[in-house]
Amino acid sequence: MPEKMMKTIEVDEELYRYIASNTRHIGESASDILRRLLNLDNKADAEPQPATAPVVTQGEGVRHMLESGTLAAQDSAIERFMTILSVLYRENPAAFAQASDIKGRKRIYFADSEAALLAAGNTTKPRAIEGSPYWVITNTNTGRKRNIVAQLMAAMGYAHGLIERVSQSI
What we know:
Elements: H1 13-21, H2 30-37, H3 43-46, H4 60-68, H5 77-91, H6 93-99, E1 110-111, H7 114-119, E2 127-128, E3 135-136, H8 142-156, H9 160-168
Antiparallel strand pairs: 1-3, 2-3
Helix pairs in contact: 1-6, 4-5, 5-6, 5-8, 6-8, 8-9
């Protein structure tokens, strides 16, 4: 079966969020989501791919981040935390969107605006996640940052060993 040529298109933020919000499973491509929403004939509908199919390339960006020394060059836990979140978002925006619903007992960790995080608490010190539409609280100890990353990566479907390596690198 010949491989399909993939093209890149730009969409505005509202359309992007709509597509991401219609993701049915981790790793579902934007093309598959749009084909389903537009009721286009798609072999993927007739022959669902196993859930492990997207794992083939999942983690490449994360592994590169670990092996390149990018994190080791960061001066603080906050900078390493922010770098990890940015890489996770770039690697799989749709899975990140679903997984970013994780919360603490009294706090929300992720939001789509600084104002939303400030409204949830006075001392959250929100920061924008580079390259993404998300903001995250940074006023947590290193252990909590590790926990947030571990929960996020688990929800995104990363392997346990990789989750451990990344969270311990903060």
